[in-house]
Amino acid sequence: MAIVGGSEEATVVVRNKQVILREYVPASGFPKESDMCVTTIGTIKLMLPDQVGSDGVLVKNLYLSCDPSQRSRMTKYEPSTHFVSFQPGLVSLYVSIILPHMIRTPQQRV
């Protein structure tokens, strides 16, 4: 991780890690670590405005949490069913447990 300081904003350059569903989970089973894979696709710049009055908070995911609605989407279903299945190999837009990573001022740190 590299921190780049500037007069207008603080920037952190990090590796872009993604957790991908490798294969469908059987309806009668539970997700296993082997059903997922972690990929790194280049780097991204995470920016937090350094302006007075800015309410920006940058967070870092520490854990992957699968709630029951996400679990049900890890099983392959026919398109006509109530659930739309996740597709293995694609990024999901569902997020996990988060904790503050970079906050503009120490007084705002949780």
From TrEMBL:
GO molecular function: 2-alkenal reductase [NAD(P)H] activity
InterPro entries per the UniProt record, alphabetical: MDR_fam
Protein name stated in the entry: Uncharacterized protein
Organism of this sequence: Carya illinoinensis
